[in-house]
Structures are given as C-alpha cells and as structure tokens.
Design goal:
CATH class of the domain at 69-187: Alpha Beta
CATH superfamily of the domain at 69-187: NAD(P)-binding Rossmann-like Domain
Strand order of the largest sheet: 14-13-12-11-7-10-9-8-15
Structural class: alpha/beta
Largest sheet: 9 strands, mixed
Oligomer: single chain
Strand content: 15-25%
Radius of gyration: 21 Å
CATH topology of the domain at 69-187: Rossmann fold
Shape: globular
Helix content: 25-40%
Length: 406
C-alpha cells in the first residue's frame, strides 16, 4: 500500500501557475469573455439589468472516471446524502447496499434507488469485505462514532458535514485514523460541489489576485424550505447537531483554509445567538467568527434568516481578497441580476471580469475515488479536513452567547 500523500493544497496544484493562467486568459474563451454590460456595471457601480448577460449554460459532460469502487450508505438522516452519493457515483462508485433505522427514510431512499439492497443491519455492511467506502449523513453527533467503526473495519468514510461535533470526538477520530490509515473525508460541499468555488480555487492557485490575505464568507440559510416537511427534532438541538458554527460554519472554515492555503490556524473570536426561535431554546439561528492562519485571515457569518422571496435556500457569498485583486462569488443567486447560480466576479489590476461558471467541471468525485484506490489525498487533504473541524469546534465552544432585545 502506498503511503498517504502529505502534499499541501497549494503543492497539489503547483503546476498550474500565474503565467499559465495569464496565457490562457490572453487566448480567451467564452468563460473569460468580458460582456459590455459587465464593464458598464463596473463603471456605473450598479447592477446590470436582468437578462443583459448570457444566461446560464448547461455544463459540459464530465470526463469518464478512471477507477471503480463499491460503496454502501449507513445513515440517511439529511438530504445531503443524495449529493454525496451523486459525487461518488460520478467518480466511478457503485452503490450496492444501504442501512437506515428509520422506516420512512428507508422507503423514500428505496424509491430513488430501487436496485440497491437494503441491509438488515449496520454490521452486515461493515463486515462485507467487498465494500471499500461508507457514505453517511446520519444524525451529526453519531457521525464520528460511526466513522470510527468504519475505519476499524478497514473501510474509508465520507461523512456529511459536520463530520465531528465535539473536540473529544475529534481526538478519537484523529487517533483511529492515524492507527488505521483509512480516509475520513468530510463533504464540505460548498467548496467541493459548487462550480464557482472550484473555479475560484483554480484562479487563486494560478495567482490571479496575488497572495490571498482574507476570505469573507456570508452563508445565510432558509429555516424551512417551502413544501418540505417539518424539521426533525435533532435539527433544533445543539447537543445533536453541534451548534450553528459547528454545523453550517464548517463549510466556511474549510474554504478559509483552502483559499488562504493555511496549514495552521486558530479562532480569534466567535459569537452565537438564538434571535427568533425561542420556541426551540436549544437552537442557534445566528453566529459569526473570526479566524486567523499562517496563510491569511477569515471572517464568517452564518444564519437561518433567508426569506422565502429569494427563491432558493440561501444567498451564499464568498469574497477572496488578494494583494493584486479580489474575487466575489454569488454561489446560488444573483439578486435582481443574472439567472441561476455559480456567478464569479474577478477584479485585478487591469479590469473587472464576470465569469459564468455553469460549465466548470466538478472533479471531487473522480479525485476521491482515485484517492481510495491509490491511497492519495487529491480530492481532500486529511489534515486540512480535520483542521477545519477543529476550528469550528473551538469557535463553538468559546463563543459568546448574545442576547438581543425583542
């Protein structure tokens, strides 16, 4: 078995440098074209009129996967599991079985995947030597204990976020991962499965905005999607989901580390509140935190106040400040502007650019399956995944609890 790579995120993309990026930009493509209306937008400091720019294009077919693996699912308590499954399947994974304790969730899952066997128990899956990977979106506080059992059975693990809900769990997971050398991956989908975020990573690694100084993440969420059923009891209990910074903020901690290329980091300050959901006293609907690392600084705000009028679950925005420019992402919506999501704005020393990222490839699934086969860390750096979890767990533990006047 090959040793697990310890390359940093920056080293993994070292061959794609600033000169390569600028040469490609000079050659231009549809993705890098600068629409006149975008230049007018920059000059006038106002939103372009809806429909003034090309509409979102369908993404190009992804390249075929290079490897095949067999995987199973244990725990389907969050709908994120379907995105996790889709990523692994794109990468060459064959889903062969699943197990869930809840009959209603199992029935819905079987409607989506009628060809997949429903296992009688968790042990049936863990003891199947043909299965290489376990995917899970079980209730958050159960994810780390399950992941430990998975690794101890010689399998790799892909958890929904948050992958770990306490510092005690994190210490246990790190110890077992070091002992077993299995992969304990956490699906930070707001970077790994968002096309604009993937493109931003390419631009940052190419040096398009110089050295990154700071990331600012604004991550509002919708408390109840229209037409969806009520939230389960565990959703409202910080002891089950870890708190708002641990849960929602884990995406943003991952992005901070990745875009600043920080290998060490800590929490500067953090705070949380339950502003408007006092019927659920163990819930938190607002939080923010400041982070600092050896590659840059970060600020994160998360909340559950997306209004129904937006038309989607959240207006996720990311700002990446560099020494020679900045990038802004409108991941899921560009309010009163362009349709759809995956909007990227790049401003450098020369001009502003708008990049429609709808046709950007999502490589994580292929990379992750390849990592399982080759024992590498291309799709996700193990140390970085754990450090992102550590940051939000520290932020959650030390957060000042705010109380606002009604």
């Amino acid at each position: 078995m090959k040793a697990v790579s310890t390359d940093s995120p920056g080293e993994r993309l070292g061959s794609y440098n600033r000169r390569t990026f600028l040469a490609g930009l000079a050659g231009t493509s549809a993705a890098f074209a600068i629409p006149e209306s975008c230049l007018a937008f920059a000059a006038n400091h106002s939103q372009a009129e809806p429909g003034s720019l090309p509409e979102t294009k369908a993404p190009e077919p992804p390249p075929p996967p290079h490897h095949k693996i067999r995987f199973s699912v244990i725990g389907i308590n969050h709908y994120h599991v379907y995105g996790q499954i889709a990523a692994v399947q794109r990468g060459g994974g064959e889903m062969v079985s699943f197990y869930a304790k809840e009959p209603d969730l199992s029935a819905e899952f079987q409607k989506r995947f009628p060809q997949v066997k429903r296992a009688a128990s968790e042990d049936e899956i863990l003891n199947d030597p043909s299965i290489q990977l376990i995917v899970s979106a079980i209730i958050p506080d159960e994810r780390a204990p399950l992941g430990i059992r998975v690794m101890q059975h010689g399998k790799d693990y892909l958890s929904d976020k948050p992958g770990i809900t306490s510092l005690e769990q994190l210490a246990q997971v790190r110890r077992v991962q070091a002992q077993t050398r299995r992969i304990y991956a956490i699906m930070y989908s707001e970077r790994l499965e968002v096309r604009a975020a993937v493109k931003a990573g390419e631009l940052v690694k190419a040096g398009a905005i110089g050295r990154v100084i700071q990331t600012i993440n604004i991550a509002p969420h919708q408390i109840q999607n229209p037409g969806a059923g009520p939230r389960p009891a565990w959703f409202w209990d910080t002891s089950r989901y870890g708190g708002i910074l641990c849960d929602v903020g884990s995406h943003q901690a991952d992005q901070f580390l990745y875009y600043t290329n920080s290998t060490t980091a800590d929490v500067t300050a953090s705070q949380v509140a339950n502003v408007a959901h006092h019927d659920h006293p163990n819930f938190q609907d607002f939080g923010d935190m400041m982070l600092h690392g050896n590659g840059g600084a970060g600020y994160v705000r998360v909340d559950w106040f997306t209004p129904d009028g937006l038309g989607t679950w959240g207006d996720g925005r990311l700002f990446i400040l560099g020494t020679e420019g900045y990038i802004e992402l409108r991941k899921y919506a560009d309010i009163a502007g362009r349709k759809g999501g995956d909007h990227l704005f790049l401003v450098d020393r020369h001009q502003p650019r708008y990049i429609n990222c709808a046709d950007v490839d999502l490589p994580f699934g292929r990379q992750f399956v390849s990592d399982i086969v080759n024992r590498t860390q291309t799709g996700q750096d193990q140390a970085q995944a754990f450090l992102a979890a550590e940051l939000v767990l520290k932020a959650q533990k030390q957060a000042k609890v705010l109380t606002f006047r009604p």
